[in-house]
Amino acid sequence: MERGKMAEAESLETAAEHERILREIESTDTACIGPTLRSVYDGEEHGRFMEKLETRIRNHDREIEKMCNFHYQGFVDSITELLKVRGEAQKLKNQVTDTNRKLQHEGKELVIAMEELKQCRLQQRNISATVDKLMLCLPVLEMYSKLRDQMKTKRHYPALKTLEHLEHTYLPQVSHYRFCKVMVDNIPKLREEIKDVSMSDLKDFLESIRKHSDKIGETAMKQAQQQRNLDNIVLQQPRIGSKRKSKKDAYIIFDTEIESTSPKSEQDSGILDVEDEEDDEEVPGAQDLVDFSPVYRCLHIYSVLGARETFENYYRKQRRKQARLVLQPPSNMHETLDGYRKYFNQIVGFFVVEDHILHTTQGLVNRAYIDELWEMALSKTIAALRTHSSYCSDPNLVLDLKNLIVLFADTLQVYGFPVNQLFDMLLEIRDQYSETLLKKWAGIFRSILDSDNYSPIPVTSEEMYKKVVGQFPFQDTELEKQPFPKKFPFSEFVPKVYNQIKEFIYACLKFSEDLHLSSTEVDDMIRKSTNLLLTRTLSNSLQNVIKRKNIGLTELVQIIINTTHLEKSCKYLEEFITNITNVLPETVHTTKLYGTTTFKDARHAAEEEIYTNLNQKIDQFLQLADYDWMTGDLGHKASDYLVDLIAFLRSTFAVFTHLPGKVAQTACMSACKHLATSLMQLLLEAEVRQLTLGALQQFNLDVRECEQFARSGPVPGFQEDTLQLAFIDLRQLLDLFIQWDWSTYLADYGQPNCKYLRVNPKTALTLLEKISREMKDTSRKNNMFAQFRKNERDKQKLIDAVAKQLRGLTSSHHS
């Protein structure tokens, strides 16, 4: 029972499944029916399914048949209408065929136009593709053209940048084109070309800099001069907010970036064209004259190309060579100041350029390299200056050279270069300057002394008096009270020499300016130089004048007076130096002036020359003496030559009124002594072998004239008979012979108070022998064949006896 229920249940399920499959077949598209049929064959009841399928087909056939039967009349009607339509369709076909033929005929031109349009469209598409490709290539070509233009215009650094963009940005986009491969192959060549051309520009720049270093240096030194003048003005004004110009103001820092559009980067010349500036216009900066773009471009180019070290080595090597050329002075540099100026300008220009390169590039030059060059330049410059300055004989040129060296040092000091050695060398040149000054002033003094009239300066008005007093410190109350016209005691060379000494001191002071010396050092330098001027130059000039052959007594007297006043003026020279140096004389180690000694020495030399000159004049008068030693006549007046000599001595000693008393007295005593000695020599002269008592009387008259001159007091200040003592030897000798007082002489000889104390036995013997010879000759002539008369024989015996005793006294005196 249960089995039957189970079979019945399964049968119902199978029927439901078949029904579902049939519905799917009816509703499903024929292309997708495969899976449905597969499910039927997969089961075991496909036979039953087939039966149901047949049953379903028959049912549908019956429904179709019913439907056909229901619509048959309509189908017939439709066939009838269709037949009617066929005729109309044939007509329509004929019309369509005719229309088509006409259309084809008419459409041939359209087809041709469409073909042409097709070709145009194809060309347009090709053109568009070509334009696209060209638009891709054009930037490459433009960049390459730009590169070529930059190469032509020598804009090498921008050209290198363009080359980099072309290589890394543009060429990779069109690398499959053949012309791009050509460009790629040319890129290394272009780099080398840029490298070579930039190096060539650098060489041109270096050559241009070498040629124009003096212009650069001249401008830099003008700037330094202007700055110094400005500083001096500021120092003279209240120092409110004033500061020294910094090094940054000394030059203009150029921008190291070289813009491709910059007009300056388009130029490769080293020196810009700058018109000469007027003196009253501002001097352009030294770097305003220089276009450094070739250096910067070449440095950047070599840096980009990885050859910076090569560039640095080349630049430094070339600049070292140029430094050696700049430091080689011209052989005639010492002849003019322009030679020194050009030499300094070139050195300054060289180091201004190097300093600017140091501060506007990174590592092209460094401080060690600059210091090395400067040390070399400093040593060579100092050696050259020592050599060439030694040839300078003009103190003005030496002073100008010193000022130029100071400006040279100040200019380089602004740029940070040590210049102490230059100032040390200036101290050496200072000694040379002093020597050249001494030579110059030797000529000045010589000219003053040669042109002087050696006469007191006459003044006829108060204006002239004040003018002389203004030139020379002189005070004399008595002279001020005297009415005009009046005379100063000294001649014109006194104020002239005094003023020239002051001018010399000013000249020494000029050299010490700007040498960074203390007041004490300046004072010491001036005093030492002035001492040399006084003790050597002026002293030699005075000595030369004093020793001149044609110098007169009047001139010598005036020289003594002049040197006396110059000696008194030395204290004013001390004050003058103190005023200009602000160093008190009491300061420790202050050098004292030796002018007093100089003028004393000159005065003593003049005094000696006066004595010598007087003696020479006396000798000249004595040469006119014409004694007749054999005369028997007794004279009644002094000899003419002696009268003239005494008159000369009187006039001469009258001039000595302005001399110091001691000098005049010494001169007068010296003249009298020399006169007495000369007369004695004249009397005892060996050539005069005989003389008469009459001649001795005439000689006595001359000596009396001399004694009268001595008693008249030609020079005040002598005590009584002091001047007469010069003739005492002659007087006692003459008295002995004229009075024939031999008994007294021989009896009192050797006693301190004897009458003839000054008579030497030898002198008396010589003169006695001359008289004895004359007496013998006279007696022989008068008594040729007779015996001597008794008195003459007695006198001769007396003479012989006296002579014998005198010889004994002489021999005992010598023993």
From TrEMBL:
The keyword Coiled coil applies. Pfam families: EXOC6_Sec15_N, Sec15_C. One of its GO terms (biological process) is intracellular protein transport. Residues 52-221 form the Exocyst complex component EXOC6/Sec15 N-terminal domain. It comes from the Eukaryota. GO terms for cellular component: exocyst; plasma membrane. InterPro entries: EXOC6/Sec15, EXOC6/Sec15_C, EXOC6/Sec15_C_dom1, EXOC6_Sec15_N, EXOC6PINT-1/Sec15/Tip20_C_dom2. Residues 82-109 form a coiled coil. Keywords: Coiled coil, Exocytosis, Transport. Residues 421-770 form the Exocyst complex subunit EXOC6/Sec15 C-terminal domain. Residues 260-280 are annotated as: Disordered. Belongs to the SEC15 family. Component of the exocyst complex involved in the docking of exocytic vesicles with fusion sites on the plasma membrane. This is Exocyst complex component. It comes from Microcebus murinus.
